[in-house]
C-alpha cells in the first residue's frame, strides 16, 4: 500500500513539474517576443519612420523589466501580465506606423491564451501601481546599445 502511495505522490510531483516547465517555456517565449517588439519600435523611432514616442517606449521598457523580475522570482502570472502590458505599449507605436508585417508583433493565439489563463486585463490598475510614469532618459532609450546595457529585456 505504501508503494502505491509513493508512486502516486511521485507521479503527481512529476506532472506538476512538467506543467510548470511548459508554462515556464511559454512565458519565456512571450517575454522574448515582447523584447523583439520593443526593439522594433525603438528601431523605427531611431530611423525616423515614427515620431518620437518617448512615453510609450519608456512604459514598454519598464513593464518588460518588471516581467523579467517577476519571472526570476517564479511569479509566472505577473511575468505574463507585465510582458503583455509592455507589448501593448510597443505595439501601439508599430500599429500607428501602419508597417507591413505588424501582425507578427501582435500577441499570437498561444500568448493570448496564456494571458487569459492568468486573468490578464489591460485595464487592470494593479500593473500601473508598481511603475512610475516618468519617461526614461532619451539618451538611453533611443540608443540600442545603451538600452541593452542598461536594461535586461529578455531571458
List keywords for this structure.
mainly alpha; 155 residues; 68% helix
Radius of gyration: 18 Å
Domain module count: 1
> Any low-confidence stretches, pLDDT <50, length ≥5?
14-21
Number of helices: 6
Name the beta content range. under 5%
Helix fraction?
55-70%
User: What's the number of extended β-strand segments?
Assistant: 0
What is the general shape?
A: globular
Average residue pLDDT? 83
Sequence of secondary-structure elements: HHHHHH
Please give the alpha-carbon distance between the first and last residues. Answer: 44 Å
Largest sheet: none
Which structural category do the helix and sheet elements fall into?
mainly alpha
Please state the oligomeric state of the protein chains shown: single chain
Report on this model:
This protein has 155 residues and is mostly helical. The protein starts with a helix and ends in a 5-residue tail after the last helix. The chain is globular, with a radius of gyration of 18 Å. α1 (2-46) packs antiparallel against α2 (54-72) and α2 (54-72) runs antiparallel to α3 (76-97). 33% of the residues are buried. It has one domain. The protein contains 6 helices and no strands. The protein has helices spanning 2-46, 54-72, 76-97, 109-117, 138-141, 144-150.
Q: How would the blueprint of this fold be written?
A:
Elements: H1 2-46, H2 54-72, H3 76-97, H4 109-117, H5 138-141, H6 144-150
Helix pairs in contact: 1-2, 1-3, 2-3
